[in-house]
Amino acid sequence: SARLEADASGVRIDLRVTPGLALRGDRELLHRAVENVVRNAARYTPPGSRAEVAARHDMVRREVSVTIADQGPGVAPAELESIFEPFFRGGNATASRGYGLGLAIARRVIEAHGGRISASNRPAGGLAVAIVLPA
Predict the structure, then answer these.
(1) Hey, is 104 helix, strand or coil?
(2) Which of these, 14, 21, 56, lies nearest to 38 by C-alpha position?
(3) How would residue 96 be classed by pLDDT, with cut points 50, 70 and 90?
């Protein structure tokens, strides 16, 4: 569903998912958590470029990892943890869109499912959000 908004902005969302990937948990809550992160990635990716979503199953660690990466401006290193706090609006936040709740909701949902979520700046530019959940 995030592709509709992305397409309208000239942003492509690439999806790579390991076949047969499955999780246990509240389907609707997990969908909303991942969708919040994907919509943020699409919002901060410049027109004509792409956001990437990759999901894979690590059978050794018994985890599913989802990485959502954009090609936007990234986040100031001092703000990487704060972006998951409710109502936090970082220095690169667009002035008129959002309330600073999407990533906070995502973190709560992921942690309620026994997982973790983190963000890092990509070496080539942009932000990568990593979600790890028990398989």
Answers:
(1) helix
(2) 14
(3) very low
Q: With contact defined as beta carbons under 8 Å apart, do 63 and 83 qualify?
A: no
Beta-ladder partners of 63 = 58, 134
CB atoms near residue 7 (< 10 Å): 12
Q: What is the DSSP string of 6-70?
A: HHHTT-EEEEEE-TT----S-HHHHHHHHHHHHHHHHHHSPTTSEEEEEEEEETTTTEEEEEEE-
What is the distance between the terminal CA atoms of the chain, rounded to a whole angstrom? 24
Please name which of 60, 53, 20 lies closest in space to residue 38, comparing C-alpha atoms: 53
| Consecutive H or E run containing 82 | none
- Rounded to the nearest integer, the mean pLDDT of the chain is 90
CA angle in degrees (0–180, nearest 5) for 133-108-66: 30
Taking only the tens place, the pLDDT of each residue in 107-121 is 999 999 999 999 999
Encode pLDDT of 35-83 as tens digits.
Answer: 999 999 999 999 999 999 999 999 899 999 999 999 999 999 999 999 9
